[in-house]
Amino acid sequence: MAIVRPLQFGRAKPGFAGHQRVELLRRISETGSISQAAKAMGVSYRHAWKTIDAMNQSAAEPLVRCQTGGQHGGGTALTDEGRRLIAVCDAAEREHRRFLATLGRRLKDFDRFYELLI
User: Fold this and answer.
1) Dihedral, CA of residue 18, residue 86, residue 96 and residue 21, to nearest 10
2) Tens digits of pLDDT across the chain (118 residues)
3) Which secondary structure element, helix H or strand E, spans residue 65, and what is its range?
């Protein structure tokens, strides 16, 4: 059995890893580029860069590493901690959907009241 080390978020505030931020990390992982990730999400490079910088500053360990250009060009990659954050968020989202489905089966008129919860 593997020992699972909990994610540590240092100075992170609630909402630190919201859906849009996790999606930005996912796009960076796919493209290897903040610029390409920003373009895919329809946000400015500056906004994406500031978001990544804020996340790296708030997290106990960097989530993204950037390498400046040069002879072989630059690039951006997720750290192990960044990949773990995506995995944890994906698992939490799956569990949340499962929880809501269970409530829907157990509670009469749940669908009608669900909108009041979100």
Assistant:
1) 10
2) 444 455 554 555 556 678 899 999 999 999 999 999 999 999 999 999 999 999 999 999 999 998 876 566 678 999 999 999 999 999 999 998 998 888 888 887 777 777 776 6
3) strand 64-67
Distance CA 25, CA 2 (A): 25
- In terms of DSSP bridges, do strands 64-67 and 75-78 run parallel, antiparallel, or are they unpaired? antiparallel
Amino acid at 11: R
The answer to whether residues 33 and 76 touch, using CB atoms and an 8 Å cutoff, is yes
Burial code (b: 16+ CB inside 10 Å, e: under 16) for 87-104 equals eebeeeeeeeeeeeeeee
Residue 69, both tokens: 């250009």
CA dihedral 97, 83, 3, 101 (to 10 degrees): 0
3-class state of residue 75 by DSSP: strand
The pTM of this model reads 0.75
